[in-house]
Model the fold of this input.
Amino acid sequence: MAAAPGERIGIVLQSCRLDPYLTVRESLGLYAGYYRAPRPVDEVIELVGLTGKADDRARSLSGGQQRRLDVGMALIGDPELLFLDEPTTGFDPSARRQAWETIAGLRDLGKTVFLTTHYMDEAQRLADRVMVIAGGEIVAAGTPEDLGDRDTLPTTISYQLDGEEISVKTTTPVADLHQLTERALQQGLELEGLEVTRPSLEDVYLSLTAEAGEDSQ
Done:
């Protein structure tokens, strides 16, 4: 993907090597010196959520905090286009959520973010548009809501009846749900926790990659 002339680009690779002896502020200050008009260092520190760690050395940061510093280094040049290569790999759930907030903040700043990820919930949460690649080829593209043909994938109806968990997959959810609730009313049954779940983005992904013949292992 070629950048437009003069377009500023930031890149966060899957694995980056930080200088362990520099503090967060020193690391960002060093990278800021490479640009004619960098973003203010303190502003970037706040943006990536490292205000309380600004004077800590990189080697003392947690894995999630180091990843945030990686993002900060990509942002210090005030890029218009940002590439993030699986930025939350190895994160615990809390760190992933915090990273999502940071990435969503970049989008809200008007940045174009090109994100590669194997986490479908991450794509669902962050992406305006999604491309699925299988066998080195794009097999589908669209919004997270419209990607693929969800009408051909089963919807899940789940509920509890007399303490038993019951889950039914169906391609005719409206008709089946009507029959289920009608029978429950006639027999005086309580369908606790009744829930109807449409196919998720992960379901669509698995269907698309299976059609493309990609090995899931």
Helices lie at 24-32, 41-47, 63-75, 93-108, 120-126, 173-187, 201-211.
